[in-house]
Protein 1
Amino acid sequence: MSGCGCDSVCEAPAPDPGYRRALWLALVLNVLMFVVELGASFSAQSVSLLADAVDFLGDAGNYGVALFVLGLAPVWRSRTALWKGWLMIGYGVFVLGKSAWQWSAGVVPEPVIMGWVSLLALAVNVGVAALLYAHRRGDAQARSVWLCSRNDALGNLAVIGAAGGVWVTAHGWPDIGVAVVLAGLALSSGASVVRHARAELRGA
């Protein structure tokens, strides 16, 4: 819209075809890993695997939304990033609640399943993060997508460590401890995305 006095808000840049392809691949991989980890979390009775599975589902939704808003004006991408930031915060709160329940139930998860599934998830997340690395310094929307991918890879390393801790101690506290750390990471990253998106909206 020429002459509207808000060119940075009303006009959207042409979507990057490479970024679009990366988002589609990330979407498919995250849906597949959600199914795998969800089944493994129930089989292993692992709250950290369940938290990671829910995170895969949330990321699949994030990539789908990112594809939808890719050709829209920057103000709409910022608004979407704001919503996604709050979603990340909500995920963190959910994991904290689930961890509290797991602690009260005294469940000891199966470490072998945790370890192998976490290694598979790590390989997927490192690949996705590598695909999106070049786009990490875009607007709040691109930043939120990059942060989700980075957090997933870090989370997988933590779950692998939890599996080793459960195997050594025969207790569930390493699993719960990692779930709490993942929750904290989600809360911190969500707050960062919310701040970034609000700053973009104020500028718009």
Protein 2
Amino acid sequence: MKLLRTTVAALLLATLSGCSLFGEKVEVPPAYVGKILTKNGYKPETVTPSKFRLDSCFAYCDRLVLLEASDSGKTEKFALFMPKDQLNMSFDVRMTISVDDSKIDNVFDRIPPQKGVIASNMIYITYAQPVIRDVVRQVMAKYTINEVASSRERISQELFDSVTQALRGTPMNVKRFGLADVQFPAVITKAKEAAAKRREQIAREQAQFEIQKIQLERELEQAKMMRAIDREKAEATKEVNAILAKSVTDKYLAYRSLEVLDKMADSENKVFVPVEALGTVGLQQAVFADQVSKTANSK
């Protein structure tokens, strides 16, 4: 009897070891979706973030497979030969990319999970990376290096449009795409630095010219003011002379002559000569004879 009970217990344990009476506890975390994988394939419904228990099972148990559905940032590095310049240029493209919700079933069917998870990077490498690398090279090869330097925003928009079109029909959606960390050839960089120095020098010379221009304009204004002052002085002198010319008459001159004679009369060293006789020949001869006589007596 004891042997029988032991045998039955062993058989029951062996039976129960291949089954789960209550089902496994599982979870679909945020930014993921899941599907239940049965022995006949995936169940049709997609499981959104939640916690639940799998169905009880016997011999074969269902499994939860997760798919990473979050937005993912990616960077692709390029070292590209630019045909129009015959030079090499390196740059990055940075993007935000995610799985298209309408294509989730296709992803589950076509990409095998690793440890129960289909990572977004696996989807990116499978569907997006080869397309993006090819499209970026095609677009960038159309431009010169100078065009890339001056039109990065426009080229980034063209890259976004071209990549979005190329990925249409795949499980990937592009939400943002653009150029970044552009490394120009050394010869281009040196040329740009030299051009920047020339622009800076021109700006300094222009500023100096403006300063000199202001100084010259100020000096010109000062010269105009001085000329205006000189003109006013000349006009004033002219007006005074005009007034004097009108005021000095013959009667005024005769009066002034009498004043002079009056002052001379007070002096002891004098010879009185009528004013009217100053210009006559006889007076001049008399003065000459008197001077000769004074000279002879002094000898």
